[in-house]
Amino acid sequence: MRKLSRIGMAGVLAVLATAVAVWGQAQQTASKPLARPARPKLVVMIVVDQMRADYVEKFRGEWTSGFERLLEQGAWFRAAAYPYAATSTCVGHATISTGAFPDSHGMISNSWWDRDTQKMVSCTSDPNVKNVAYGGGSTKGGDSAWRMQLPAYAEELKFQTGGATRVVTFSLKARAAITMAGHKGDAATWFDGSSGAWVTSSPYGTMPFIEDFVKKHPVAEDYGKTWSLSLPATSYLYEDKSAGALPPDGWSNSFPHPLHGKEGSTAADEVFYQQWSTSPFAETYLTKLALAAVDSLGLGKSGATDYLGVSYSSVDYVGHAFGPRSREIQDILVRLDKDLGELFTHLDQKVGRANYVVAFSSDHGVVPIPEEMQKAGVDAGVLNLVDLKDRLEKALEAFNYSKPAISRITGWEIYFSQGIYGQLRQDPAAMRAVIDAALTTPGVFTVYRAEDLNGGSKSILETRTAMELSYFAGRSGDLFVVPKPYWLLDSTAAGKTRGYATGHGTPYNYDQHVPIFLMGYGIEPGEYFAPATPADIAPTLASLTGVTLATRDGRVLSEALRKRRAN
Ligand SMILES: [Zn+2]
Question: What's the 57 CA to ligand 1 centre distance in angstroms?
Answer without folding.
Answer: 21
